[in-house]
Structures are given as structure tokens and as C-alpha cells.
Specification:
The termini are far apart. The chain has one domain. The protein is mostly helical and 102 residues long. Helix 3 packs antiparallel against helix 4. The mean pLDDT is 86. This is Membrane lipoprotein.
């Protein structure tokens, strides 16, 4: 029999909130952000999506193998958190400085 714990409910609520947030981003914002990122951060900004995909893929593989609690899994979690923080800070900077002007 399946048991539902409070952590499962919190995780489902956070996933739903994240999906609602992602779907509410205007298309114009998403079209203008990549060009702004390259113009602001230079060509290095082009490497961030590839790095995030690589870390995400490795993290997914470790998750499927059940090895998230190992030192490599924890290092990948830290790397994913760092990349997420960089992305969120760039999105906020773009929104607060450029997008709201128009």
C-alpha cells in the first residue's frame, strides 16, 4: 500500500507553484533575455545553458542510481544550486534594469 507523507505534499505543492510561475513568464521576456545576457555577460553566457544541461544530466543519472547521498551527488547538488542562483540573479537583474523600462 502507498503512504503519502507531508514531505510528498510539500514537494507536490512546490512543483505546482514552480510550474505556474514558469508558465506565467511573458513570451517577450523570454525572447529578449538571451540577447541581453550575451550583451551583458559576453560570450561566456553562451556556456551556461550547456553547463546546466551537463550538471542536470549527471544529477539525473545519479538520482536514478540512488547515489545522491554520495560525495559526487552532493557536489552536483551544490553545482546545480550555484547555477540556479546565477540564473535567478541574471533574470532578476534583467527584469529590474531592462524589462520594466519598456
Amino acid at each position: 500500500m502507498f503512504e503519502i507523507h507531508s514531505g510528498d505534499i510539500v514537494a507536490a505543492a512546490l512543483a505546482a507553484a514552480g510550474a505556474c510561475l514558469a508558465c506565467s513568464i511573458p513570451g517577450d521576456f523570454l525572447r529578449r533575455f538571451p540577447l541581453w545576457a550575451v550583451r551583458t555577460y559576453g560570450r561566456g553566457a553562451l556556456l551556461m545553458p550547456f553547463l546546466a544541461m551537463m550538471v542536470g544530466t549527471w544529477l539525473f543519472r545519479l538520482g536514478l542510481a540512488g547515489q545522491i547521498d554520495t560525495p559526487p551527488g552532493q557536489a552536483l547538488l551544490v553545482a546545480a544550486a550555484f547555477l540556479g542562483t546565477l540564473l535567478v540573479s541574471a533574470l532578476l537583474r534583467f527584469y529590474l534594469k531592462e524589462y520594466r523600462k519598456r
